[in-house]
Write a structure and sequence with these properties.
8-stranded antiparallel sheet; 5-stranded mixed sheet; 399 residues; alpha+beta; 40% helix
Length: 399
């Protein structure tokens, strides 16, 4: 029995072609076959077990921390909504120094943002200009199929397909399974962002980080061409690897709204009693209440995203913890499949039980009333699963 421990044991080409012009290109396919012995798989599974032992408590820490972060942010936003005062934009009032203010109005700039390398200039009133660069380049797509062999070993066949197409940034061709004939050059230009200089909101100055928080959502049309993209290469109808397409987007809002601490004639973060530093900026004339509501919605969305991440990490951790059982059973492939299904199901059940409990404990710590409700749901779920497991043998006996 061979043991390559995941190394390629062979490779073959199918229909490779050179770098000829065209809007898309087929660089052929490259197939490799690798094998791994049962003993090597057991070693890998034991390493995975150690990783799983770290991932399970790590996911619990993430879930607990996320609930605290969510509560702290929500309290800070509520505190800010009660403390903010809307003030005129024409000039700063020294009486508001250090206080949380809401300012809204049109913005003026002393110097427009300008892409000097490519001579791209946006229209008057622009606060921010963003350059996007796409390169025509080689791209690799891998598809792998792993087959279990009698005795516990595996054989993996990986097919790598190479095509040329447009993509932002540079694909690292040094990581291709078959790099020969598929080298991507370093692009002549990279993505970049440019901010206006001397931007003022009435009598208040706007800093670069504040301008950078505004979305560049308008497409720049190049003067004289009527197009929004500049092609850098010989023939846009027949691109070659290394050719570039450059486009720009810009932020030119009719007005800007800011919620932050007044610091001199500018803005800075406002320290809340809850422990956060508030600073909100949006395009348009947006009331303070609407800005705080949007921030609360964004906080809720981020909370659910991090919860999902924590749950997925916990499930993977449990699956890695039980994976050695599947590998041991893979001596007979059909038995390994059954054990794998069972261990994955067990990992799912344990995750479904543990994640709500951890979240509930976190809420008990941060918000006791809500935490009690979440814990009740988790306990009810655990009780229901236990009842189902007890009922199944009884039904089998009656049958």
């Amino acid at each position: 029995m061979s043991d390559n421990s995941g190394r390629d044991s062979g490779g073959s080409w199918a229909n490779p072609v050179g770098d000829t012009p065209g809007s898309s290109g087929d660089g052929g396919t490259f197939t490799t076959t690798s094998s791994q012995s049962w003993l090597s798989r057991i070693g890998s599974a034991l390493v995975g077990l150690l990783i799983g032992l770290a991932m399970i408590p790590g996911s619990g820490v993430l879930l607990f921390w996320n609930e605290g972060r969510a509560v702290q942010t929500a309290r800070s936003l509520t505190e800010g909504a009660g403390a903010v005062r809307s003030v005129p934009a024409d000039r700063p009032d020294a009486a508001n120094e250090g206080k949380l203010v809401h300012v809204s109005g049109p913005v003026r700039v002393t110097q427009l943002p300008f892409d000097a390398e490519l001579d791209a200039k946006p229209p008057n009133g622009t606060l921010r200009l963003v350059r996007h660069v796409e390169m025509f380049q080689w791209q690799e797509e891998n598809q792998s199929e792993t087959r279990n062999r009698l005795g516990g070993g595996t054989e993996t066949v990986t097919t790598s397909t190479y095509r040329r197409g447009w993509q932002e940034g540079r694909v690292d061709s040094g990581r291709f399974r078959q790099g020969e004939g598929h080298q991507n050059p370093t692009p002549r230009y990279a993505a970049a962002s440019f901010n206006a200089q001397g931007a003022t909101l009435g009598g208040f100055r706007l800093s670069d980080p504040q301008i950078g928080g505004l979305p560049a959502d308008q497409t720049l049309t190049l003067p004289g061409s009527g197009e929004g993209t500049r092609y850098i290469g010989n023939d846009p109808n027949n691109p070659r690897v290394g050719d570039l397409r450059v486009s720009w987007r810009y932020a030119r809002p009719d007005a800007v709204s800011v919620i932050a601490a007044q610091v001199g004639d500018g803005f800075g973060p406002y320290a809340t009693n809850a422990g956060d530093r508030l600073q909100l900026i949006q395009s348009g004339s947006v009331p303070a209440a609407a800005m705080f509501q949007q921030a609360q919605d964004d906080n809720a969305t981020m909370t659910w995203i991090l919860r999902l991440v924590g749950v997925v990490v916990m499930f993977i951790g449990w699956a890695l913890l039980f994976n050695p059982l599947k590998v041991l059973a893979d001596v007979l492939p059909f038995l390994g499949s059954l054990v794998g299904f069972g261990t994955n199901a067990l990992a799912g059940v344990l995750t479904a039980l543990m994640a709500p409990v951890i979240i509930g404990v976190a809420w008990l710590f941060y918000r006791p009333l809500v935490g009690i409700a979440i814990l009740a749901v988790g306990i009810g779920l655990a009780y229901g699963i236990t009842r189902l497991r007890r009922r199944a043998p009884q039904q089998e006996k009656l049958a």
